Amino acid sequence: MDLYDEVVEATAEEFQQHIAGNALIKALATGQVKRGHYLAYLQQTYHLVRHTSRALALAGARLEDDRRELRNWFFHQVEEENGHDLFCIKDVSRLDEPVDEIFAGQPRSGAWGLITQNYFMATYGNPVGILGVATATEGLGATMASQLADVLIQRYGIPSNAVTFLRSHGGFDVRHLEEAKQAVNQLVHPDEVELVIHARRMTFINYGRLFQEALEYPIEPRGQSLSSAA
Question: How would you classify residue 2: left for phi > 0, otherwise alpha for psi between -120 and 50, otherwise beta?
Fold first, then answer.
């Protein structure tokens, strides 16, 4: 078993409890999602991803020359992740909703937990732990994003040009996940594995909370209401 498989096995319970069994995922499958839930998801995702590249840059900057390969991995990911908040802006705009109003304010607890854990590891803790975050988030994008986009389009009538965040991540996160796997297997020291596992666990817990809050706090839409297809 390589290090990545060890990390996945150690966090399987958190994935099942907080992601696979999440109430939002169940609601999507049973026709209970409304336009306001999707807007809330985009809102919280916007708050999260606009910080991702900055946290990655800070993390890479803390690594000395003896971790040059890992530092290069972080800086490569900065380029890959920069500007993903613009997908969320585009999707809300194409739903004819007020962009400035929806993205004003502060993130809720799920997004806040994801943002703050990344900045903590990047600036005070051990940046290597962020690999646990990457394996979790890139894995979610690679395995779930395209399917969720299809459900929103086919069952809920969301325009195909308003799921660009999900659709794009369903594509390039497949490659990002492979890069994260390689980094864990080749660039993580044995005494750092627990850091990666802990960060991946916390990511599933916080991401599950982000999903839950999108369900609990829908945004009242101004555009056409969203209903499940027959």
Answer: beta
200 and 107 Cβ atoms separated by less than 8 Å? no
Q: Is the pTM of this model over 0.90?
A: yes
Give the CB-side neighbour count of residue 39, counting CA atoms within 13 A: 26
What does the H/E/C string look like for 204-226? HHHHHHHHHHHHHCCCCCCCCCC
- The answer for residues whose C-beta is within 8 angstroms of residue 136's C-beta and 6 or more apart is 11, 199, 200, 203, 204, 207
Beta strand extents in 28-175 (DSSP E only): none
- Residue 175 has phi, psi (to 5 degrees) of -70, -40
| Collapsed DSSP state (helix, strand, coil) of residue 72 | helix
Question: What is the rounded CA–CA span in Å between residue 142 and residue 139?
Answer: 5
Give tens-digit pLDDT for 139-194: 999 999 999 999 999 999 999 999 999 999 988 789 899 999 999 999 999 999 99
Other CB atoms within 10 Å distance of the CB of residue 128? 23
Q: Are 19 and 140 in contact (CB under 8 A)?
A: yes
